[in-house]
Amino acid sequence: MSIYSGPVFAMAQEQFNLVADYIGIESEHRDRLLYPKRAISVSIPLHTDDGQTKVFQGYRVQHHLTLGPTKGGTRFSPQLDVGEVAALAIWMSWKCALAGLPYGGAKGGVACDPNSLSVRELEAVSRRYMQEMIPFVGPNTDVMAPDMGTNEQVMAWFMDTYSMYKGHAINEIVTGKPVAIGGTAGRREATGRGVAHLVKRALESIQLDSSRSTAIVQGFGNVGSISAYILAREMGVKIVGLSDHTAAYYDPAGLPIDVIERYVAEKRNLAGWSNESAIDPSELLTRECDILIPAATEQVITATNASRLSCRILAEGANGPTTPDADAIIEERGDIFVLPDILCNSGGVIVSYFEWVQDLQRLFWTEKEVNDRLKDILNVTLDRVIRRARKDGISHRVAAMAIGIEKVREGKKLRGLFP
Fold first, then answer.
1. Which pLDDT does position 216 carry in this prediction?
2. Does residue 28 lie in a domain region?
3. Any binding-site annotation on 352?
4. How many domains does the chain have?
Protein backbone atom coordinates (compact mmCIF):
# COMPACT_ATOMS: atom_id res chain seq x y z
CA MET A 1 0.00 0.00 0.00
CA SER A 2 1.13 3.56 -0.70
CA ILE A 3 -0.17 7.04 0.11
CA TYR A 4 0.76 8.07 -3.44
CA SER A 5 -1.97 7.66 -6.01
CA GLY A 6 -3.60 9.42 -8.92
CA PRO A 7 -2.88 9.71 -12.63
CA VAL A 8 0.14 12.02 -12.33
CA PHE A 9 1.98 9.76 -9.88
CA ALA A 10 1.06 6.71 -11.97
CA MET A 11 2.58 8.46 -14.99
CA ALA A 12 5.83 9.23 -13.14
CA GLN A 13 5.98 5.61 -12.00
CA GLU A 14 5.40 4.30 -15.52
CA GLN A 15 8.12 6.55 -16.93
CA PHE A 16 10.54 5.38 -14.25
CA ASN A 17 9.84 1.70 -14.90
CA LEU A 18 10.38 2.14 -18.65
CA VAL A 19 13.79 3.71 -18.03
CA ALA A 20 14.61 1.20 -15.28
CA ASP A 21 14.01 -1.62 -17.76
CA TYR A 22 16.29 0.09 -20.29
CA ILE A 23 19.21 0.61 -17.89
CA GLY A 24 18.71 -2.68 -16.08
CA ILE A 25 17.78 -1.66 -12.53
CA GLU A 26 17.03 -4.77 -10.49
CA SER A 27 13.46 -5.01 -9.20
CA GLU A 28 14.58 -5.04 -5.55
CA HIS A 29 16.28 -1.65 -5.98
CA ARG A 30 13.49 0.17 -7.79
CA ASP A 31 11.31 1.14 -4.84
CA ARG A 32 14.23 2.81 -3.07
CA LEU A 33 14.93 4.95 -6.14
CA LEU A 34 11.31 5.76 -6.89
CA TYR A 35 9.48 6.35 -3.62
CA PRO A 36 10.04 9.62 -1.72
CA LYS A 37 12.06 9.78 1.46
CA ARG A 38 9.53 11.96 3.25
CA ALA A 39 6.02 13.35 2.79
CA ILE A 40 4.52 16.00 5.06
CA SER A 41 0.82 16.86 5.21
CA VAL A 42 -0.38 19.86 7.21
CA SER A 43 -3.57 21.82 7.79
CA ILE A 44 -3.55 25.55 7.00
CA PRO A 45 -6.31 27.39 8.93
CA LEU A 46 -7.27 30.85 7.70
CA HIS A 47 -9.43 33.65 9.07
CA THR A 48 -11.03 34.95 5.89
CA ASP A 49 -11.83 38.60 5.28
CA ASP A 50 -15.56 37.92 5.68
CA GLY A 51 -15.08 36.51 9.19
CA GLN A 52 -15.18 32.81 8.38
CA THR A 53 -12.55 30.18 9.16
CA LYS A 54 -11.36 27.93 6.36
CA VAL A 55 -8.84 25.09 6.47
CA PHE A 56 -6.67 24.22 3.46
CA GLN A 57 -4.47 21.16 3.04
CA GLY A 58 -0.74 21.70 2.52
CA TYR A 59 1.92 19.22 1.41
CA ARG A 60 5.66 18.88 0.97
CA VAL A 61 7.36 15.82 -0.52
CA GLN A 62 11.14 15.35 -0.39
CA HIS A 63 12.21 12.66 -2.82
CA HIS A 64 15.83 12.05 -1.82
CA LEU A 65 18.70 13.79 0.00
CA THR A 66 21.47 11.59 -1.38
CA LEU A 67 23.32 14.26 -3.35
CA GLY A 68 22.52 17.31 -1.23
CA PRO A 69 19.46 19.20 0.07
CA THR A 70 16.19 18.81 -1.77
CA LYS A 71 15.01 21.56 -4.10
CA GLY A 72 11.65 22.31 -5.60
CA GLY A 73 8.77 24.66 -6.11
CA THR A 74 5.69 25.41 -4.05
CA ARG A 75 2.38 25.27 -5.90
CA PHE A 76 -0.91 26.88 -4.86
CA SER A 77 -3.62 25.08 -6.84
CA PRO A 78 -7.20 24.00 -6.03
CA GLN A 79 -6.70 20.45 -7.35
CA LEU A 80 -3.37 19.78 -5.62
CA ASP A 81 -2.95 16.39 -3.94
CA VAL A 82 -0.06 14.45 -2.46
CA GLY A 83 0.22 12.12 -5.46
CA GLU A 84 0.74 15.04 -7.84
CA VAL A 85 3.24 16.63 -5.46
CA ALA A 86 5.18 13.36 -5.19
CA ALA A 87 5.35 12.98 -8.98
CA LEU A 88 6.65 16.54 -9.34
CA ALA A 89 9.29 15.86 -6.67
CA ILE A 90 10.43 12.72 -8.50
CA TRP A 91 10.74 14.57 -11.80
CA MET A 92 12.70 17.30 -10.03
CA SER A 93 15.19 14.68 -8.81
CA TRP A 94 15.94 13.49 -12.33
CA LYS A 95 16.03 17.11 -13.55
CA CYS A 96 18.60 18.22 -10.98
CA ALA A 97 20.77 15.16 -11.55
CA LEU A 98 20.60 15.60 -15.33
CA ALA A 99 21.81 19.22 -15.01
CA GLY A 100 24.55 18.23 -12.54
CA LEU A 101 23.08 20.14 -9.59
CA PRO A 102 23.86 18.92 -6.03
CA TYR A 103 20.19 18.49 -5.11
CA GLY A 104 17.48 15.93 -4.64
CA GLY A 105 13.99 16.75 -5.80
CA ALA A 106 11.17 18.18 -3.71
CA LYS A 107 7.80 19.77 -4.29
CA GLY A 108 5.09 21.23 -2.15
CA GLY A 109 2.07 23.42 -2.02
CA VAL A 110 -1.37 24.23 -0.72
CA ALA A 111 -4.68 23.06 -2.19
CA CYS A 112 -6.20 26.52 -2.66
CA ASP A 113 -7.09 28.97 -5.40
CA PRO A 114 -4.75 31.96 -4.98
CA ASN A 115 -6.86 34.06 -7.36
CA SER A 116 -9.80 33.85 -4.96
CA LEU A 117 -7.76 35.08 -1.97
CA SER A 118 -7.18 38.70 -1.00
CA VAL A 119 -3.60 39.85 -0.52
CA ARG A 120 -3.98 39.54 3.24
CA GLU A 121 -5.44 36.04 2.95
CA LEU A 122 -2.69 34.96 0.55
CA GLU A 123 -0.03 36.25 2.93
CA ALA A 124 -1.65 34.42 5.85
CA VAL A 125 -1.78 31.12 3.94
CA SER A 126 1.83 31.56 2.79
CA ARG A 127 3.20 32.34 6.24
CA ARG A 128 1.26 29.57 7.97
CA TYR A 129 2.42 27.04 5.37
CA MET A 130 6.06 27.97 5.93
CA GLN A 131 5.61 27.97 9.68
CA GLU A 132 4.29 24.41 9.52
CA MET A 133 7.25 23.39 7.32
CA ILE A 134 9.99 24.88 9.54
CA PRO A 135 10.90 21.55 11.24
CA PHE A 136 11.43 19.91 7.85
CA VAL A 137 13.17 22.55 5.70
CA GLY A 138 16.39 24.55 5.80
CA PRO A 139 19.20 25.82 3.55
CA ASN A 140 20.95 22.45 3.83
CA THR A 141 17.79 20.32 4.01
CA ASP A 142 15.13 21.60 1.60
CA VAL A 143 15.11 24.88 -0.34
CA MET A 144 11.75 26.09 -1.67
CA ALA A 145 11.03 28.03 -4.86
CA PRO A 146 7.96 29.46 -6.64
CA ASP A 147 5.74 27.40 -8.90
CA MET A 148 2.22 27.61 -10.32
CA GLY A 149 0.15 30.02 -8.22
CA THR A 150 3.10 31.48 -6.28
CA ASN A 151 5.60 34.22 -7.05
CA GLU A 152 8.42 36.42 -5.71
CA GLN A 153 6.18 37.97 -3.05
CA VAL A 154 5.17 34.58 -1.67
CA MET A 155 8.85 33.63 -1.50
CA ALA A 156 9.55 36.86 0.40
CA TRP A 157 6.87 35.92 2.96
CA PHE A 158 8.38 32.43 3.22
CA MET A 159 11.84 33.85 3.83
CA ASP A 160 10.61 36.36 6.40
CA THR A 161 8.63 33.73 8.32
CA TYR A 162 11.60 31.36 8.50
CA SER A 163 14.01 34.20 9.36
CA MET A 164 11.82 35.52 12.17
CA TYR A 165 11.75 32.02 13.67
CA LYS A 166 15.56 31.74 13.50
CA GLY A 167 16.18 35.31 14.70
CA HIS A 168 18.16 36.59 11.73
CA ALA A 169 17.84 36.91 7.96
CA ILE A 170 18.35 33.62 6.14
CA ASN A 171 18.15 34.53 2.46
CA GLU A 172 19.14 31.06 1.25
CA ILE A 173 16.05 29.31 2.63
CA VAL A 174 14.14 30.03 -0.61
CA THR A 175 14.98 30.97 -4.18
CA GLY A 176 12.95 32.98 -6.67
CA LYS A 177 12.61 35.83 -4.19
CA PRO A 178 12.97 39.55 -4.98
CA VAL A 179 16.49 40.77 -5.81
CA ALA A 180 16.24 43.33 -2.98
CA ILE A 181 16.30 40.57 -0.36
CA GLY A 182 18.86 38.22 -1.88
CA GLY A 183 17.24 37.08 -5.11
CA THR A 184 19.29 36.81 -8.26
CA ALA A 185 19.06 38.78 -11.46
CA GLY A 186 17.51 36.64 -14.19
CA ARG A 187 15.60 34.18 -11.97
CA ARG A 188 12.09 35.31 -12.94
CA GLU A 189 12.86 34.81 -16.63
CA ALA A 190 15.07 31.74 -16.23
CA THR A 191 12.66 28.94 -17.10
CA GLY A 192 11.23 30.73 -20.13
CA ARG A 193 14.69 31.83 -21.25
CA GLY A 194 15.91 28.26 -20.98
CA VAL A 195 12.99 27.00 -23.07
CA ALA A 196 13.70 29.60 -25.77
CA HIS A 197 17.43 28.83 -25.82
CA LEU A 198 16.84 25.11 -26.23
CA VAL A 199 14.29 25.78 -28.97
CA LYS A 200 16.99 27.78 -30.75
CA ARG A 201 19.37 24.81 -30.47
CA ALA A 202 16.65 22.48 -31.76
CA LEU A 203 15.94 24.76 -34.73
CA GLU A 204 19.64 24.67 -35.59
CA SER A 205 19.67 20.89 -35.26
CA ILE A 206 16.84 20.38 -37.76
CA GLN A 207 18.02 23.31 -39.91
CA LEU A 208 15.00 25.59 -39.56
CA ASP A 209 15.38 29.36 -39.78
CA SER A 210 13.89 30.94 -36.64
CA SER A 211 12.75 34.03 -38.57
CA ARG A 212 10.62 31.79 -40.80
CA SER A 213 9.29 29.61 -37.99
CA THR A 214 5.97 29.68 -36.16
CA ALA A 215 5.13 28.79 -32.56
CA ILE A 216 2.15 27.92 -30.38
CA VAL A 217 2.40 28.46 -26.62
CA GLN A 218 -0.16 26.68 -24.46
CA GLY A 219 -0.13 28.40 -21.06
CA PHE A 220 0.58 32.13 -21.04
CA GLY A 221 1.86 32.29 -17.47
CA ASN A 222 5.39 33.09 -16.36
CA VAL A 223 7.09 30.38 -18.43
CA GLY A 224 4.90 30.62 -21.51
CA SER A 225 4.84 34.42 -21.73
CA ILE A 226 8.60 34.78 -21.36
CA SER A 227 9.23 31.99 -23.87
CA ALA A 228 6.91 33.70 -26.35
CA TYR A 229 8.52 37.10 -25.71
CA ILE A 230 12.07 35.83 -26.36
CA LEU A 231 11.07 33.74 -29.37
CA ALA A 232 9.28 36.70 -30.96
CA ARG A 233 11.54 39.61 -29.98
CA GLU A 234 14.99 38.04 -30.02
CA MET A 235 14.63 35.23 -32.56
CA GLY A 236 11.99 36.53 -34.96
CA VAL A 237 9.62 33.58 -34.49
CA LYS A 238 5.99 34.27 -35.40
CA ILE A 239 3.65 33.41 -32.51
CA VAL A 240 0.49 31.99 -34.12
CA GLY A 241 -1.24 30.49 -31.06
CA LEU A 242 -1.61 31.30 -27.36
CA SER A 243 -3.78 30.14 -24.50
CA ASP A 244 -4.27 30.24 -20.75
CA HIS A 245 -6.93 28.70 -18.51
CA THR A 246 -9.52 31.24 -19.73
CA ALA A 247 -9.14 31.40 -23.53
CA ALA A 248 -7.23 30.25 -26.61
CA TYR A 249 -6.35 32.16 -29.80
CA TYR A 250 -4.90 31.10 -33.13
CA ASP A 251 -4.04 33.14 -36.21
CA PRO A 252 -1.68 31.78 -38.91
CA ALA A 253 -0.82 35.39 -39.81
CA GLY A 254 0.60 35.90 -36.30
CA LEU A 255 -0.60 37.31 -33.00
CA PRO A 256 0.49 40.75 -31.69
CA ILE A 257 2.54 39.74 -28.64
CA ASP A 258 3.07 43.33 -27.45
CA VAL A 259 -0.66 44.06 -27.47
CA ILE A 260 -1.49 40.77 -25.73
CA GLU A 261 1.15 41.33 -23.03
CA ARG A 262 -0.34 44.74 -22.21
CA TYR A 263 -3.85 43.26 -22.14
CA VAL A 264 -2.84 40.45 -19.76
CA ALA A 265 -0.96 42.89 -17.53
CA GLU A 266 -4.20 44.82 -17.08
CA LYS A 267 -6.80 42.00 -17.10
CA ARG A 268 -4.62 39.23 -15.58
CA ASN A 269 -5.75 36.68 -18.19
CA LEU A 270 -6.50 36.24 -21.90
CA ALA A 271 -10.29 36.10 -21.66
CA GLY A 272 -12.02 38.60 -23.93
CA TRP A 273 -8.94 39.76 -25.84
CA SER A 274 -10.35 38.84 -29.27
CA ASN A 275 -13.39 37.24 -30.88
CA GLU A 276 -11.92 36.81 -34.36
CA SER A 277 -8.95 34.63 -33.30
CA ALA A 278 -10.68 32.68 -30.52
CA ILE A 279 -10.74 28.88 -30.86
CA ASP A 280 -11.66 25.90 -28.71
CA PRO A 281 -8.71 25.44 -26.30
CA SER A 282 -8.73 21.69 -26.97
CA GLU A 283 -7.84 22.39 -30.61
CA LEU A 284 -4.80 24.58 -29.98
CA LEU A 285 -2.23 21.82 -29.48
CA THR A 286 -2.98 20.24 -32.85
CA ARG A 287 -2.95 23.40 -34.96
CA GLU A 288 -0.13 23.78 -37.47
CA CYS A 289 3.15 25.27 -36.24
CA ASP A 290 6.88 24.59 -36.21
CA ILE A 291 7.32 24.90 -32.43
CA LEU A 292 4.78 23.68 -29.87
CA ILE A 293 5.34 24.73 -26.25
CA PRO A 294 2.99 23.16 -23.69
CA ALA A 295 3.68 25.39 -20.67
CA ALA A 296 0.63 24.81 -18.48
CA THR A 297 -0.20 21.57 -16.68
CA GLU A 298 0.44 17.84 -16.81
CA GLN A 299 -0.97 15.29 -19.27
CA VAL A 300 -2.24 17.56 -22.05
CA ILE A 301 -0.64 15.56 -24.88
CA THR A 302 -2.17 12.10 -24.80
CA ALA A 303 -2.80 9.08 -27.01
CA THR A 304 -5.91 10.92 -28.22
CA ASN A 305 -4.13 13.90 -29.78
CA ALA A 306 -0.47 12.83 -30.20
CA SER A 307 -0.98 11.54 -33.73
CA ARG A 308 -2.53 14.88 -34.73
CA LEU A 309 0.33 17.13 -33.56
CA SER A 310 1.46 19.35 -36.45
CA CYS A 311 4.77 20.63 -35.08
CA ARG A 312 8.44 19.97 -35.81
CA ILE A 313 9.66 20.74 -32.28
CA LEU A 314 7.91 19.85 -29.01
CA ALA A 315 9.39 21.97 -26.21
CA GLU A 316 7.94 20.97 -22.85
CA GLY A 317 7.81 24.08 -20.69
CA ALA A 318 5.44 22.37 -18.24
CA ASN A 319 6.16 19.34 -16.06
CA GLY A 320 4.77 16.07 -17.40
CA PRO A 321 2.71 17.44 -20.32
CA THR A 322 3.12 14.28 -22.42
CA THR A 323 1.82 10.90 -21.29
CA PRO A 324 3.79 7.66 -21.90
CA ASP A 325 1.16 6.51 -24.42
CA ALA A 326 1.63 9.75 -26.34
CA ASP A 327 5.41 9.36 -26.12
CA ALA A 328 5.16 6.00 -27.86
CA ILE A 329 3.14 7.52 -30.70
CA ILE A 330 5.52 10.46 -31.10
CA GLU A 331 8.55 8.17 -31.10
CA GLU A 332 6.96 5.94 -33.75
CA ARG A 333 6.21 9.00 -35.89
CA GLY A 334 9.85 10.05 -35.75
CA ASP A 335 9.22 13.52 -37.18
CA ILE A 336 9.19 15.62 -33.98
CA PHE A 337 12.29 16.86 -32.15
CA VAL A 338 11.33 16.49 -28.47
CA LEU A 339 12.83 18.65 -25.74
CA PRO A 340 11.65 16.68 -22.69
CA ASP A 341 10.46 18.51 -19.61
CA ILE A 342 13.34 17.62 -17.27
CA LEU A 343 15.68 19.22 -19.80
CA CYS A 344 13.50 21.90 -21.42
CA ASN A 345 12.22 23.61 -18.27
CA SER A 346 15.35 23.11 -16.15
CA GLY A 347 16.40 26.76 -16.50
CA GLY A 348 14.40 27.68 -13.40
CA VAL A 349 16.10 25.24 -11.05
CA ILE A 350 19.52 25.94 -12.58
CA VAL A 351 19.24 29.66 -11.84
CA SER A 352 17.68 28.84 -8.46
CA TYR A 353 20.90 26.93 -7.78
CA PHE A 354 22.86 30.04 -8.78
CA GLU A 355 20.74 32.11 -6.37
CA TRP A 356 21.34 29.65 -3.50
CA VAL A 357 25.09 29.68 -4.14
CA GLN A 358 25.18 33.49 -4.24
CA ASP A 359 23.21 33.74 -0.98
CA LEU A 360 25.52 31.26 0.75
CA GLN A 361 28.60 33.17 -0.41
CA ARG A 362 27.07 36.65 -0.05
CA LEU A 363 28.56 37.39 -3.47
CA PHE A 364 26.23 38.25 -6.35
CA TRP A 365 26.63 38.01 -10.11
CA THR A 366 25.40 40.25 -12.93
CA GLU A 367 22.44 39.20 -15.05
CA LYS A 368 24.80 38.58 -17.97
CA GLU A 369 26.89 36.21 -15.84
CA VAL A 370 23.74 34.38 -14.75
CA ASN A 371 22.41 34.02 -18.31
CA ASP A 372 25.80 32.97 -19.72
CA ARG A 373 26.24 30.29 -17.04
CA LEU A 374 22.67 29.10 -17.65
CA LYS A 375 23.28 28.68 -21.38
CA ASP A 376 26.55 26.84 -20.73
CA ILE A 377 24.82 24.24 -18.55
CA LEU A 378 21.89 23.88 -20.96
CA ASN A 379 24.23 23.39 -23.92
CA VAL A 380 26.27 20.71 -22.17
CA THR A 381 23.14 18.92 -20.96
CA LEU A 382 21.40 18.98 -24.35
CA ASP A 383 24.53 17.66 -26.08
CA ARG A 384 24.78 14.84 -23.55
CA VAL A 385 21.13 13.87 -24.09
CA ILE A 386 21.43 13.91 -27.89
CA ARG A 387 24.60 11.79 -27.81
CA ARG A 388 23.00 9.22 -25.52
CA ALA A 389 19.85 9.06 -27.64
CA ARG A 390 21.79 8.56 -30.87
CA LYS A 391 24.21 6.05 -29.35
CA ASP A 392 21.52 3.79 -27.92
CA GLY A 393 18.74 4.47 -30.42
CA ILE A 394 16.35 5.79 -27.76
CA SER A 395 14.11 8.84 -27.39
CA HIS A 396 15.36 12.10 -25.94
CA ARG A 397 13.09 11.58 -22.92
CA VAL A 398 14.46 8.14 -22.11
CA ALA A 399 18.02 9.44 -22.61
CA ALA A 400 17.46 12.43 -20.30
CA MET A 401 15.78 10.39 -17.59
CA ALA A 402 18.38 7.64 -17.80
CA ILE A 403 21.21 10.11 -17.22
CA GLY A 404 19.44 11.57 -14.19
CA ILE A 405 18.37 8.24 -12.70
CA GLU A 406 21.83 6.73 -13.16
CA LYS A 407 23.42 9.58 -11.22
CA VAL A 408 21.00 9.17 -8.30
CA ARG A 409 21.45 5.39 -8.35
CA GLU A 410 25.23 5.75 -8.26
CA GLY A 411 25.02 8.19 -5.35
CA LYS A 412 22.85 5.81 -3.35
CA LYS A 413 25.17 2.90 -4.16
CA LEU A 414 28.27 4.79 -3.01
CA ARG A 415 26.68 6.03 0.21
CA GLY A 416 25.18 2.64 1.02
CA LEU A 417 22.12 1.86 3.11
CA PHE A 418 22.18 3.23 6.64
CA PRO A 419 21.07 0.52 9.12
1. 98
2. yes
3. yes
4. 2
